[in-house]
Automatic annotation (TrEMBL):
Protein name as annotated: [histone H3]-lysine(4) N-trimethyltransferase
Gene3D superfamilies cross-referenced by the UniProt entry: 1.10.220.160, 6.10.140.2220, SET domain, Tetratricopeptide repeat domain
Enzyme Commission number: 2.1.1.354
Coiled coil: none
Pfam families linked to this entry: SET, zf-MYND
Biological processes per GO annotation: heart contraction; methylation
Organism: Lates calcarifer
InterPro entries: H3K4_H4K5_MeTrfase, SET_dom, SET_dom_sf, TPR-like_helical_dom_sf, TPR_rpt, Znf_MYND
Domain SET residues, every copy: 6-237
Single Gene Ontology MF annotation: histone H3K4 trimethyltransferase activity
Amino acid sequence: MTGSIEGLERFDSPGKGRGLRVTRPFKLGELLFSSPAYSYVLSVKERGCLCEFCFTRKEGLARCGKCKKAFYCNVKCQKGDWAMHKLECSAMTAFGEKWCPSEMARLVARILAKKKVQKERCVSEKILLLGEMQSHVDNEKREMNEADIAGLYQFYSKHLDMPDHKDLLTLFSQVACNGFTIEDDELSHMGTAVYPDVALINHSCLPSVIVTYNGTSAEVRAVQDMKPGDEVLISYIDLLYPTDDRNNRLRESYYFTCDCQECKSKSKVRSSSDPIEPEVINNMVRYARKTIREFRASKNLLEMCEQSLEGDGNIDGAIRYGEKILKPYNRLYPPYSLNVSSMYLKLGRLYMGMERHSMGISAFKKALAIMEVAHGKDHSYLVELRKEMAQK
C-alpha cells in the first residue's frame, strides 16, 4: 500500500528539506487528514483515569486482573491492548515499586514490538515510513538515550528482540525528534505517540494547521484558509516565547533555526526598540508560564481554594491570575491557540464552580470558538462543553 493522502503531497520545501503541501483549497477549520498512531503509550500518572487502549476518560474503568495497574473501558479495549500491555504486565508485577522505565522507553518498546509483526506499510505511514523519520544523535542527548536504553533492557528484554545499539540510539533519537504529546482539552499530558505522516510537517511560528487528538488519533486542521501549493506548517514549540528564545529551543531540540516571517519581523522590531523591552517580555512570559503550570498542576479546579495562587487562600486568586494571563496570551499567541482555549476553559469552570454563571458561559463561548476550529465541531470535547454550558 503505497502512500498518498487525498488533497496533500510530499515535496522538497526550500531550506527545510522534506515537507507537506496541499493540492486543493482548504477552509479555516477544515480537516486535512486524520492519522492513527503508529504506536502510543498512556502516561503512568493517568492510569486509572483513562482507558489504556482508547484514552477515554471515565469513572469505573475495569482493572487488568494480572498486574492490577492497567485500566480499560471493557473487555474489547483490554483485548485490543493486550499485544502492547503484555510487554509490561508481568514485568510490573515482578519489579513492583522498582518498575520505572521512562515514557520514552515504554513507547520505544511498543514500536519495537509493532515493527516485529508489521511487515507492510501501515495506515499511519501513508506518505512517510517510520524509518524515514528525521533523527539527530548528538553527544549531549546521547547520555539521556543511553539511560533510556538501559531501562529498555532492564524492563523489556524478556519480551523483545533488541536491535543493535546504534539502531536503538537512532530510534530513540527519531522518537525524541518526532514524538507527539497527546493532550486533553485543558492541555494535560495524557500520553506520547508517534505519527510518521504527521511528523513530515515542518515548523513555522506562523502555523497554517494545528494538531489535536481524538482518542489516540491525531487530526490536522487548517487554522487559516489554504490554497493549492501552500505548505502545511505546525508549531513545534510554545509560541509564547520571544523570537530568540524560540530559536534557541528549536536549535536545542530540532537542530534548526526558524526564518518564518514572524521571526524576521519580530527580530527587527525588538532589536530596534528600547533595550529594556525583551526583559519586560521575558518577565511577562515567566509570569504567565509559572501561572499556567500552577493552573495545570491542579486536576480538580476547585482545589484552587486550598492551593492559593496568590497566597490569599481562595478561588478568587486563581480567577484573578487566569484573567491576568489571558491578556498576554491573547496578544502573544496566534488565533485558534489551544493555550488560549484551555485557559478560557479553566476560567469558565472556575466561574461555574463559584456560581458566576454568566462569566462562566462567556469564557466557555470564547473557548468554544477556538475549539470548533481546532478540534472540529463534533469532537467529544465540544459535546461535553455544550453540556456544561447548558447546566444551570
